[in-house]
Amino acid sequence: MIKEVKGQAKVSLGLDVIWKSLTKELQFIIPKLMPEQVEEGHVLEGDGGLGTVFLFNFSQGIKTLRYQKEKIVELDETLHLLGLQVVEGGHLDHSFSYYKTTFQLTAAHDAATAETIVDVTVAYEFQAEPVKASHTHMPSITMAHSLKFVKSLESYLLTNLVAAGSLTTG
């Protein structure tokens, strides 16, 4: 039975800026923003669209995970929906048979501000075998890291866009 953990973050950038970074620069941006978790990222297959497979090598500080291959299984430009499913390594080596993180971006209702709501869903299913207690916390940890990543992406983009003169702060 597939279970879910959900979370949400609000970022002070327009939807298009966040969407582009999340979908077009993911393999580069994750290691840059979260080096304590992810050492490097590579595209193994695809062009960044549906079906693209990434390889993320985890940092040495992550003792329980060495690497993880993730595939874009959902990509909807209209709905601003990105779903990444683990297809090898990582969480699948720790009692999970299914593990997917989905990002849904929505423009904030206030048209006067450039804000985006980012809903994150971690969907998972355990294998039939008994599960270690430490593994049951992994989806919540993934959620916390995903929300931290979204806020780090916001800070990174705000700093770099302002420095480049592409964005004004008011």
TrEMBL record:
Keywords for this protein: Pathogenesis-related protein, Plant defense
GO MF terms, alphabetically ordered: abscisic acid binding; protein phosphatase inhibitor activity; signaling receptor activity
Gene3D superfamilies: 3.30.530.20
GO biological process, one term: defense response
GO cellular component, as recorded: cytoplasm; nucleus
Start and end residues of each Bet v I/Major latex protein domain: 22-159
Xref: PANTHER family: OS08G0374000 PROTEIN-RELATED (PTHR31213), PHYTOHORMONE-BINDING PROTEIN (PTHR31213:SF64)
The family this protein is said to belong to: Belongs to the BetVI family.
Protein name per UniProt: Bet v I/Major latex protein domain-containing protein
